[in-house]
Amino acid sequence: MNVLVIGANGKVGRHLVRLLGQNESHRVKALIRNSDQAEALERLGAETVVADLEGTVGEIAAAIKGSDAVVFTAGSGGKTGADKTLLIDLDGAVKAMEAAEQAGIQRFVMVSALHAENREQWPESIKPYYVAKHYADRLLEASNLNYTILRPGGLTDDVGIGKVATGEELTSHTISREDVAAVVVAALEEQQTYHRAINLVSGSTPIAEAIRL
Q1: Main-chain phi, psi angles of 118, to 5 degrees
Q2: pLDDT over 80 at 115, yes or no
Q3: Positions marked active-site
């Protein structure tokens, strides 16, 4: 599978590029905003293509054309304001969906956030981020794409353990970025994840088994 990663230069994205680059079943292309980011990602095994989520849908579609799947793990980051969250985490995500449809790509994996679907559980301190994730998820669910939405808990830089917990009754609230990336790889061709939103935290069930539950 030819996998296009949007947000490849982020912390989850870099883990994902590395894992895909090591996987003989996949080829990985990294969409980057700045060509200065290319060398590091190419060392991880990716081909790179330059496009900006604040550009046009047509420009993004041209950049991702030829891929079999798109993974959206981009984010404006915690140091920007609500305006950038709106432009990247919401509008950028929707542009990516529209671009995938325009380019004839059906498979789309979205890295969202735990409780994005439930307004009652949004932290006040980062509410704009949750608003963006909520509506991006809803628009993906309403699209014609073959989607999977992954909703990880708080992200850590711990080494991945290859085991997670899914479902509604979760005792943990965090997960390593490396494990999130590993779940993306496992979900790409796992039909049990199609047209589903999956809560995701650190746990005791091997990833391949957990995402089929």
Answers
A1: -120, 100
A2: yes
A3: 129
